[in-house]
Amino acid sequence: MINLGLQVRRAVERDYDRIANLVYYESNSHRHLDWHSPLEWIGSSHYWVCEENGALAAALACPEDPPHVAWIRFFGHNYHLSASQAWTLLWSAAHSEIAAENKRTYIAAIAVKRWFQSLLYESGFELKQNIVLLEWKNPSRSLFAMPSGIRIRPMQDADLPAVANVDLSAFGLFWHNTESALQKARQQCASATVAEDDSGVIGYQLSSKNPLGAHLARLAVKPEVQGRGVGMALVNQLLQSLNLNLSGRLSVNTQADNAASLSLYKKMGFVLTGESFPVFVFQVGG
Question: Residue 260 and residue 251: Cα distance in Å, rounded?
Fold first, then answer.
């Protein structure tokens, strides 16, 4: 039965407080794990809300960042509306709008909650890969030597264009952190450093602190200099700066099928925790 009191429209600035209630007070929500609050995307493309008799009942945000990749940053609904009903209405609007742009776009989600995974499967999303979590378990191990000709220093605003290029070359378009995303991350993280040689910036890391220790949120090295110990040197400096070499937990996540990344972390003393998170993708356009 169709509920004639339901209407879907674009999210606008005046929706801020009502979307905030969905984000912070409703348990029926999916939130993308990144440096942005779902509220920061209000006003961007592909942000929709559903109203029930004039009251905001659900919201879906999937803005493109990086280009051609629209991560589902937020989906939430209040208890008056079922997850299936809210998703069907909002997903139909988002899908139609993105399809009308006549370009190839990947709509993606890291879906932790089972109910959201079910909605994605039912809508034709496919499992792309899994994200696995690792933890540093070898505090007695010798720290890693600095490669010759490599310098590590704090990241500056002026480094962001070069850091974004390193990120794109290391991870490709799908997982790319754009310059604006990196700037946001740098403002919030506990540690942000770059590795450079005479050619300029060749690697970087971003890490956040938590009550148990720290999380290595991003580690990237230019492909042409991988294997020289740059990644190890960045992690070594992080361990020293955060005083994690003798105590404390350092975690990191990577794609389950990224053999090079898993090999590097294993060499540094990281071990798999057994936790994993599925990545779902829906392709629109050619």
Answer: 17
Give the three-class secondary structure for 17: helix
**In angstroms, what CA-CA distances link 218 with 35, 142, 203, 233?**
12, 23, 10, 14
DSSP state of 64: B
CA distance 94 to 92: 6
- As a whole number of angstroms, the distance between CA 70 and CA 32 comes to 11
pLDDT at 5: 78
User: Beta 69-71 vs 105-110: how paired, if at all?
Assistant: parallel
Q: What is the pLDDT of residues 210-241, one digit of tens each?
A: 888 899 999 999 999 998 999 999 998 888 88
pTM of the model: 0.90
The H-assigned helical ranges of 152-248 are: 160-171, 179-188, 230-241
3-state SS assignment for residue 16: helix
Question: Cβ neighbours of residue 179 under 8 Å, at least 6 residues apart?
Answer: 160, 161, 163, 164
Instruction: Report the candidate in 58, 67, 115 with the shortest Cα–Cα distance to residue 85.
Output: 58
* Number of continuous H segments (helices) and E segments (strands) in the chain: 7, 14
Lookup: tokens for 111: 């879906």
Contact residues for 117 (Cβ-Cβ < 8 A; gap 6+): 111, 278, 280
Identify the structural domains of the chain with CATH numbers, from first to last.
6-124 (3.40.630.30), 133-276 (3.40.630.30)
